[in-house]
Automatic annotation (TrEMBL):
This is Proton/sodium-glutamate symport protein. It is found in: Cell membrane. InterPro entries: Na-dicarboxylate_symporter, Na:dicarbo_symporter_sf. The keyword Iron does not apply. Keywords: Cell membrane, Membrane, Transmembrane, Transmembrane helix, Transport. It comes from Pseudobdellovibrio exovorus JSS. It is a multi-pass membrane protein.
Amino acid sequence: MNQHTKLILGLLLGGAAGLALHDTNLAFINSFNVYVLNPIGQIFLRMIFMVVVPLIFSALVLGVNELGQARGLGKVAGKTIFFTFVTSAASVLIGITLVNLFKPGAGLTIDTDLISQNAGTLSKLKENMLSAKPIQQIIVDLFTKNPVDSAARALDGEIIALMVFALLFAMGISLSTPTGEKNILIDFFEKILAACMKMVEFAMKLAPYAVFALVFNSAYTFGFSIFKSLLFYVFVVVLGLLLQQTIVYSLILKIFSKISPIEFVHKCRDVFLYAFSTASSNATLPKTLEVAEKSLKLPPHISRFVLTIGSTANQNGTALFEGVTVLFLAQVYGIDLSLGQQVTVVLISILAGIGTAGVPGGSLPPMMILLQTVGIPPESIGIILGVDRLLDMCRTTINVSGDLVIAAAVSGSETEKYKVPSDSLS
Ligand code: ASP
């Protein structure tokens, strides 16, 4: 059985078993989940997270250095930023249109149980919100005082500062190397990147079991009942994400990369499975890099640059989710948001998508701030926490898909020869 089939089986069996056993409350299953399955899932995630810092650093240094040497950095960076804004804006607009159309929150009575069940998570999120920084400090903090400290806290929101350091460092390497020579540091980072990818292969061996464990855990913990009252809201988010994939991404692929959207989905299916199961763009990054180079055949210096930055800075699914959720909660509370406030929601959702950490639940802290900004009680987020894991799995898939779409579009628009041949299924 090939790896892909095993992954699908892990996903389906994990989901089915988790849902089927949710209501049984058998001590044996509880213990098996806590002592066996949960650790398997966590170990798998950690085996990937442990390489995220060296992987992101070396991939960015190599990408930027090559782009710098070819004098292509400015153009590629400019196009990446352009596509990030276009795709994020499109996704938020899709979400906001749907939520205004379907009004999933109108007439819904607030289930205070949903809020109190999540009291622990809520109080942590609240603490986070109170320590939120003003905008000028956010910009200053993009430039780290201490890259080692940023590396140590990379998965707690410091990854962007580390990326900025990597970018400047790579420009330093490129500019300090005489034309035609290869800097010894480039060899060094190539070897680090290769070693990281090998390490990820170890984790991939565990993947089908870990996917089973992770999906079982979510399904078993939350079950179906949690969805009943929020079914309409979940439907709106998922429909929005599907529209983003089928309309926005397909158009971009067709116009800029010449790769057919169906072929894209076919070649990227393993990436989607990883993103869905791990709910983390950062944990999916090694697989994303591999597929971009081996299956989509994108030029590595472009894909490394776009994908590493995108794993944190391009999160269209998250932006859509934020927009929908804020308007949904406003409907639940009967708060009528003015046009100006809705525009604020759109803008902050786009920025939140850019500033969200690529880890499970990374979008919840910025969401609390967004709610506060437009005058909705931030603790209302408790209403949706129960379904957040499932939505996180879905939006992460679209986040990662968006990174690959942008990498294909930038590659395609950069030079003719990088246009992906549409007849080469691999
Ligand atoms: N889990 C998402 C990601 O890693 C971020 C989020 O929306 O919470 O892409």
